[in-house]
Structure formats: C-alpha cells, structure tokens
Amino acid sequence: METMNDTLAPNVIDNSPNRELISVLKDQIGKSKESKFAIGYFFLSGFSLVREDFPDSYDNLPFLKIVMGNETTYLTKEELVAGYDLRELFKQRMIEDLQKKKLGEGQIEQLRTLKEFVGNNIIDVKLYEGSRLHAKLYLFLTDPDEKYTSPGLGVVGSSNFTSDGLTKNKELNVLLTAREEVIYLNQWFDNLWDEASEFREDLIKVIDYSGVLPESPYPQIGTLVDPQTLFKYLVYQWFEGRVLKLLKRDILMEFQIVGVMNAVNILNFYNGVILADSVGLGKSFMASAVIEEFLNGKHPDWLANNGKEPSVLLILPPSIISQWEELLLNSDYFFKGNKKELRSGYIRTYEVYEDYGEKLLGTIAFLSLGIFQNMKEGEVDRLAEKYDLFILDEAHRFRNKSTRRHKNARKLLKKSDNFPNKFMLLTATPLNNSIDDIFNLIRIFNDDRFTPFTVKGIPIADLMKQYRDLKKELRKRDDDKIRKDTKKVATEIKQKILDEIMVSRVRKYIMEQFKDIKVDGKPLVFKDPKPFSLEYSPFYTRPYGELIDLVTGKIDDILFEYTKLYGSRFVVFEGDDDENGKHYIEIADLFKLLLGKRLESGIYPFETTLRRIYEKEKMFYNIFKIQIDTIFSEDSLRVIIKDAMGKAKIKKELEEVSVEYNVEEQDEETWYDRLVKILLEYSEDLKEEGVEYSQLDEIKLGLNKILQNLESDLRIMDTILEKLDAIKERDNGEYKIYGKIPKEDSIIELPIYRYVSDPKLSALKQIIGDPSQKSDKLENVDSLNRKKIIIFTQYKDTAYYLYHNLQDWASRETGLHTWLKDGKTDLIKIGLVTGDIDTSTKMNYLKRFAPVANSGYAEIERHGELEILISTDALSEGVNLQDADAVVNYDLPWNPMVIVQRVGRVNRIGNETDVYVVNFMPASEIEVIVGILSKLKEKISDITLIVGKETKILSPDEEITVETFGEKIKDYSQLSITELEQYGISEDFEKFLPEGMPQEQVDEYKLSNIIQYELGMTDKDFEDVKDMEDEPYYTFIHSDTGKIISVYEFYRDRYKIMKRVMSTTPVSNEISMETPLVFLDLMKGSARSPEKIESAITGLKTLKNETENIVEDLKEQYQQEQRGFLYQLYNALLVEREKAGEFKDRFTIVMTALQTIPYYEYTREIKPKLTERNLIELNRENVIVKDFAGTVDTLFDFFRAQGLVDIESLRVRVKHPGWWYEV
C-alpha cells in the first residue's frame, strides 16, 4: 500500500493521522461566533469531544444550530415498517444510544452540560423530515457580516457528529474556505433550517427519559427487535429454556399436562413437589411422565454430574410395586420393552434404553417402604448418592417426623457435595390430622432453614406455628377474632406455601376449568355414580347371630399376650392438640380392632386371622412351658425368645403392622430391655412375701405370668374357633375344602371352607345370580347379572374365599353358564388378583377382564374372557378397568377415598356408560367394632386418632363418637363418588385446597400447546435467542389496546423467586397482571415503527414503580423470628462487621445463615463449639466476641457442613427481559 503524503491537499480530511476531523472542529468552534451543523445524527459522544472548545461567551444565541435528518441507510428497514415516524425513530435511537453506554461521572457531567446548553438555547436542534438528508455540513462563521473576505470555514463530507465519525471511521471530508463557497453553504443551511421542525424540547426530554442521569426516575428501554424475535426471547426466558414441554400429549389429558408442567417448575425451584390430586386423576401417570422426561435428558440440571445417566428410585408400599413396574416398564405408555433387569438384592433395578435398545437412558429402581424404613444410615446415604429423583407414593405415610421412615427420607435430601436431590411425593390425603402433616412432608425435600422459602421471603416455620397456636386457642374458646385470625393465616399458608409446592385438584375444578377438553373427540365427562347400599342383615341365621354374640362377649378378654414380645409394644398416634403430643395404644389393643375389621369383611378372614394368632400364641406357650426350667441366665432367655419369635414370624408381622400404623420406634439393641421390664412388672403379681428374688428369678416369674395369660387367650380362642367349626359345611364328617391360601410366610396352612351360614356371601350370590330368583329383601339393589363386575375387598383371605366359593357356585348354577362358563374350555370366567400374584398373571387377568382398555383381545383368544374379577386394593390404583359395568365393595374401608379410588378404576375420565356401585353395609359386625372402640375409649379419649386420623379417614371434621360410629359408616356407604371425595377431605384441608388451578398455569399450557401444535415451532426456531445478552428487548406492534406490556423477574441471590407479566396504559396508569398467554399478541399484531416513545417510557416508569413496591413487599414478607442465643450472636457479630476485611464474603454468608435458620435449630451445637474454643464469652443475655475471625471461620465451616452456605445475600434484584407497546 502506498504511503499517503501528509503535505498534499491539506483541505482533504479523512481521519487518517494528522487529518482527523475532530482537530478541525476543536480549532474552529472556539474561534466562531456562530456554528451550523447539518448531519444525519449526533449525540453525546460528539458533543463531549468539543465541549471544552466552546467560546466563553456568545454574541448571539443559539450559538450552535444543528439540523438532523434521515440518512441513506440507517432507517431503511424502519421505513418499511408500518407507522414510520422519523421524529420517534430519532428519539428512540438517542435513548437507546445513551442507555447502552456505561457513562462515567465525567460523561454524566457532559450530558448535564448538553442538556443545559440546549435548555439555555446555546445549542438549538431541528429535525429535517423531508427527503433524505445525505449531506454532512459543519459550518463555522468567524465573522458572519464580513463583506470582502471569507466569513468562515465549511466542512462538507461524510462524517457524522459522533466520536467515531470525527476520529475513527474511514471518512472523506473537504474544507471549503472561499468566500462564495462559505456564503453559499450558509444560505443552503439557512434554507434547510427554515424547512426543518423544532427538536430542542424533544432532545431535553430524550435526556430526561433516558434515565441515565442519576436523578432521573425512568427505566432502561433496551434494544429494539422485531416482534417475532421478542416473542421467542420472552417465551424462552419464561420457560427457562424448556419451551417444548408437551411430550405425552397422546397419553396425558390437558389438566394432567398442566400438572406435569407445574410439577416440573416446582421441582426446579423447591427440589420437591407434592402431587395431591384427588384419587383417580392420574397422579401416577403424571409422575411417570416426569420420570420419562428426566431419563430422556430434558432436565440435565437435576444431575450433579452431567455425564451421569439419570437414576430414579421409587419408594413404595410393597402392594403397589408391581403396579408401578407395569405402568412404567410394561405398559404401552412409557418404557415398554426397553429395559434390562439388574441383580441388586432388595432393590429391584432396571436399566432403561431408548427405543432401539442401543443408548442407555438411565436407571429405574423400586424399593419397598418396609425395607426402606429399617435401613441404617450408611445404606440411606448410599441411596442419596446413587439416585437423583425419588418418588414416594402414598406419601402420607411419611407425615410423622418422629418415625424412622421420615428420618430416613430426610437423609436423602442431598448428596455428599450438597447437591440437592429431587422428590415427588404422591398422596391424595396430604393432610389428615393437622397442618403438621403437610409441614412434615415439605421437610423431606427442604433443609433446616427451608432455603427455597427463605429466598422467597416466606417464613414457613413461623406461619405453621401461628396456625397451630391459633387452632389451639380456638379449641379453648370459640372467639370471632381468633377465628378470623385463623382463617387469615390459613389463607397465607395456602397462597404462600401450598400453592407453591403442591399440585392439588379435584374433579369439580377440572370440569370447570377444562370444560372444553375432548377425549377421543368427545367432551370430557366425569360420571358420578350413586351407589346402592346393600344391607345383608336380612340374611342372618341363628348360628351366625350366635357367633357374633360370642365374639362380642369374648373378644375384649383376649390379651394377645404374644405381642408383648415384640419389644415395640405400642402404636403411636399423634394428636392435633400439640405438635409433639403423642398417644400410645398397645398393639394388643389394636389387634382387637383389626380382628373386628376382619369380621366385617367376612367369616373366613376373621377365622384365618384368629387362627394365625392362635397358632403363634400356642407356639410361644409350648416353647416356654417346656423350656422355662432350662433358663439359667438372661442370655439363655434371650436365645429362647428369639428362636420362638423367628418360628412365629413375628418380624414379618411387625413389619406389616408398621406399614399400616406408626409403630413405636425400638432399636434392635434395646427391645430385649423393654421385654425384661415387662417381665419384671409381671413378677410383682406372683411374688411371695418375705422371699428374696434375684433378677433372673423375677424374670422367670414374669414368664410364668405370660404363660398364664397365653393359656387364657388360647381357651377363649378355642371357644370361638369351635363355634366357627360348627357352622362349616361337612361331607361325610369332614370339612369341605375348596382351596388353600398360599402359605408364604404364614405360620400355618389355611384351607378355604364354605360355611352353612354366611349371610354376606348369600347376598352377593343374590345380586349376581338369576334376577328372577332375587330375594325381595334386596328389592332396592339392582341385579348385576350379566354385567362385567369387579369385586373389591381389603383382605387377601377374603379375596381367595370369594374366588373359590363363587367358582364352585357358578359351576353348579347351570343358569349362569351362558354368562360365566367358557364354551371352549369349560372354565368359569372368574379371575382373582391380589398383591402376591406375579405381574404377568395379573396383566393376563386385566387384559382378559378389560380387553378394550388394555388391548387384551389376543389374551382372550388364547385363554378366554373374564366376566367377574375379584381383587384386593392391589388393583385400586394405577390400572384401567373401564370395560366393567359394576363395582362391588364387599367390605367398606374406613377411608372414603379408597372407595373413590376403587370406583375410579372403572369410572374413568371420559367414561360415558353408567357404572353400578354396590356397597355392602354391615350391621351386627359393626357392633363388634363399636364394642372394641368403647373399651379403647377408656385408654384414649379421642377415638378419631384410631379410626379417623393416622392412616384412615372416616369423618375428618366431626368428632367421631363410639355411639355414632356405625351411622357414619352407613352414611358414607350411600354417598356418590363426588360426595365421597368431598367427605374425605378434612375441614382443615378444605381451607387449603385451591379454588382451581392458577390461571397462569392453565395459560402456560395453552401457550405451549399453541407454540408446538399451532405455530409448529421446534427447538431450531429458538436457536437465535438462546445466546442473546441479558438486557431488555422491546418492540412496537399495531393494536388498538394502547397497552404497554412488560415482563419482570425477581431474584434473591441466584434464585428466581417470582416472575410477572404486567401491563398499563399511559392514559389510565392502572396496572394489570397478565399471563404469558399475552405473548401471542406479538405473533398476531403487525410490527410498527417506534411510536409515542415518551408515553411508552412513562408507562414503563409506572411499571417500574410497581416492581419497586413488589421488592419492598418481598423484603417485608421475610421477617424470620429470631431470638435467644442466635439472635445475640448475630448482633454481636454485626457490631464488629468492620473487622470482616479480607473474609467479607464468608462473613456475609455466616450472617445470612444466622438470619435465616429457625431460632430453635442448632443452638445446642453452635454454642459449645464457640465457647469451648474460647471464641466467644456469654455474659447473661449478651454474647461477647473474643476472636472475630475465629468465630466467623468456625461458623462458616459448621454451616457448610450442614449445607447452609448456598445463600450469599438476601437482597432482592429485578431483571427486565423485555416489553412491547401495542399502539
């Protein structure tokens, strides 16, 4: 390249070295009496370069006249947009230009000077709005009135009045000094000036509205983009990059997809969610959809190590493990056929692969709740490390924080590096007893300071305590003010806590909010069958009545003495009068109740249960009777008892009881001590006066007392069993046997009999059999003959008894053969499903019973169809039996929700046919239970704790009395499914139920649906917005709404704690809250050039003020009650905060932790750590810090070990992704 000659053509200015235009301007402007610029654009950068060169005084004002106009290229694309307005474009460009520059103090001062110069008319600015203004002119008049020589100097060329245009850009300008040239340029400018319109006031407003000056109240406007780009950017930001969410639209219904989307949002922030939809609304399907998303890589942020495959562990009651396996791994819905089972002991584990079986997606494992609750700490820690997402079904079993199962669940909270695991808790009844039920579920996925709630400013522990205290006061005195305060706090808990972490909907609200849902092209229907209540007492016979009378008179005398050997002797029920209030009931007493319930189910389950107890007691009696004289030490006693317990299957029995009830915690090491204590207490009754006894002698005396009690129990049970034997059918003197109960771990083999008198079975046969033969005693119950029937019972023994007896009966009733006998195989079309039947057999029966719902015609072709299916509640959840016409509840669970669940298997969403529901209503059997309850009431005053609160719900609101118990059972046996659903919701929980789903959630679904299925957008469509800078983006669209719509996100530390879409109109200044569905306006309205920019900024200012109000509310909302030692320690450190110096960051984290942990946590650990190391001194109520650095370091290390250092600041900040003006 040839080097330019600096001496050539000195009047050519091109910004090359020594030819910068700025040098000319600086030289000339100070000499001039008047300056005139015609340019495409100017602003602060150009003015700042020449400000210091302005003359000290001015002969005439304005000293500098500037005309701006449309350049050749800059506005071409804007001109193509409808509504093009040059003045608005200049204002918009100037404001955007100012806001993008990070102005230092000197530049801000220059801007003030510019505003002052314009305001004082030293500088005047006009806008040429005619044709394009291509020319650039800088005219300096040193003597405008000069008559002979040149009056000044002119520069004509390409440079704009900007820093780059004057110094850097490759420009070409020429200096003109000839008199004629300068005079001509002056006339040319004056003509342009006359044609141009005033812009001086606009420029002053631009400086004010830019918000750059510290005293300015106006917000940033950001960067102008087209409406489609803004739409994609806002959608991407709102959904945090997870835009295409509707992955199971072919399987899940709209309300379920909304639930899944909401659950994922909750999981992302709180690390846990409670799925509490009413029974039958598909909680297991929703959880499975989340699992599938996770394994398909849709939530990489849930993994501590992005290279690791996702692992999911489902912790389930053993009875429903096979259902979950079927749903996730064998059904057509999720991972069918793409699995490989691994050997992993008591955890059933599967590797899951993509459709073609090549790529490993992750691991799904299943663990029994009974095993989980008995795991040691190290075992639980290994689960926390291995798995990333935990599913806890029937999560209400975890609502008591004093149980081992709850403690173990909390240990799953984080991995060893404090990375949080995710939790989904499924339960239709999250609150039965008190608000602490839900609080304790929330604890499972929260640390001790409830970090997600803390950063949102929600004092969860304080609110829960307030509610408990108010409820306690309300029980003492029914006061209007207390009632109002209670309602107010309940509303706060609902809005601030439960709406945040719970997905909870009932049929009523789904029908209201999703009334347009279509199922297979037809409207969504929730049929509401009204059940028949079948009283079978008219079929009682005298022998049956005598049996009931005998049981009623004798059952309370049975001591169930062998249960004393459990070690864990009590079942614990928590009352709602006090968080820590516990009520203990002996397992022996509970067994009476369980026997009463078996009797209500039928004669046979009562007999089998009694016989199992009898055999256990007989085994203990025989062992102790023989070996008592061989006991010479406590060690030999321990060996004998352990041997007896093993033979009697005590451990398994206790596990079964503990799954159903909250058995008192008892360590393996101390159960024997408990037993010894009982034996020593017993020995007091047998001691002779004046005789000295060693402890071993006393223990043997106590064992003699147990032998006496066992003998008494056996005599009583013998009497009852003899009565049972008397009413069995015989053939040649032998009992007729129709089958056997699978022995499994039972102590004895149990044949299945038929009784001469079984009124319940007789009534069942009446409604199934020939309608013409149906007894008049059942005229109020429709016949179920030739309908497809599912019969539910709570107990396996009952199910086997019904199956074998109905099989035999149907084979003999020739009138039923055309319905119940298979013409090809001669097999009876009755099936049986219980929890102990393997999955493949169960699925075979399901497909044959409900072939339409389960694609079962191939199985029918091979094995024949089933018309009656007998099942325990192993089938009451997670399966579709929609082909059925009738549901028979052979026994009534005390929890109405179980009935809703059972009927929900048949009465599915969208079912258009009527479903018959028959509830068997006991009479005398209930009186047996009432008698048991009467005795129990002497030991525990609030009988609702047993029959209504802990694991069962009978009547959640009204206090259950022994006298009204039977009536309550009768009442709910007659309710429709919708009524039952409401009946099963406690008054307390009803306060917290949402009135429906938040509109924002529904609209998020609608937006996602439109994006994917109407606009047809894919991931590629969002590629161009993924890496856009964090700043506001904005646009203008044609619309007559006049709305300014803006999106805001609120953060505390790194946590996004809130997001809002708000709108206002400059006319009203009223603020409205919108949902993200309004983003679609950007796709509907046509783009337009910036318009009414000042109105837009005024509206943004109104919205900004509202965000400031929200920030203040968020600050005020978080008022963690702090007191005692931690409060004093915080204040002592605060006084010396100046010492923080180099470790200021640590100090800030420590102070945040002290502010946010509940005052009752950690004092016991922190105080000795600091005092024993002589870091602090305690002086009455005050804390004196002796070693500031040591105290901060010790606290930081302690909080880090507890996983409490992830909040560095409680300050709230606002992010403004974007806005638009509909004008």
Question: In a few lines, what is going on in this structure?
Answer:
This is RNA polymerase-associated protein RapA. Residues 264-448 form the Helicase ATP-binding domain. Helices cover 44% and strands 15% of the residues.
Topology:
Blueprint: E1 12-13, H1 21-29, E2 34-39, H2 44-50, E3 64-69, H3 76-80, H4 86-100, H5 105-119, E4 123-128, E5 136-141, E6 152-157, H6 163-167, E7 173-176, H7 179-195, E8 197-198, H8 200-209, E9 223-224, H9 227-238, H10 254-270, E10 272-275, H11 283-295, E11 311-316, H12 321-330, E12 339-342, E13 348-353, E14 360-368, H13 369-373, H14 377-386, E15 389-393, H15 404-410, E16 422-426, H16 436-444, H17 451-455, H18 460-476, H19 480-501, E17 502-503, H20 507-513, E18 518-519, E19 522-523, E20 532-535, H21 542-554, E21 570-574, E22 582-586, H22 587-601, H23 603-627, H24 634-647, H25 650-660, H26 671-683, H27 695-726, E23 730-731, E24 734-735, E25 737-741, E26 750-753, H28 759-768, E27 789-792, H29 796-812, H30 817-820, E28 830-833, H31 839-849, H32 851-854, H33 857-863, E29 868-871, E30 886-889, H34 896-906, E31 916-921, H35 924-937, H36 944-949, H37 965-973, H38 977-983, H39 987-992, H40 999-1014, H41 1023-1026, E32 1033-1037, E33 1044-1052, E34 1055-1064, E35 1071-1074, H42 1081-1084, H43 1093-1117, H44 1124-1135, H45 1144-1156, ...
Parallel strand pairs: 2-3, 3-4, 9-32, 10-16, 10-17, 11-14, 11-15, 15-16, 20-31, 27-29, 27-30, 28-29, 30-31, 32-38
Antiparallel strand pairs: 1-7, 2-5, 4-8, 5-6, 6-7, 12-13, 13-14, 18-19, 21-22, 23-24, 25-26, 33-34, 33-38, 34-35, 36-37
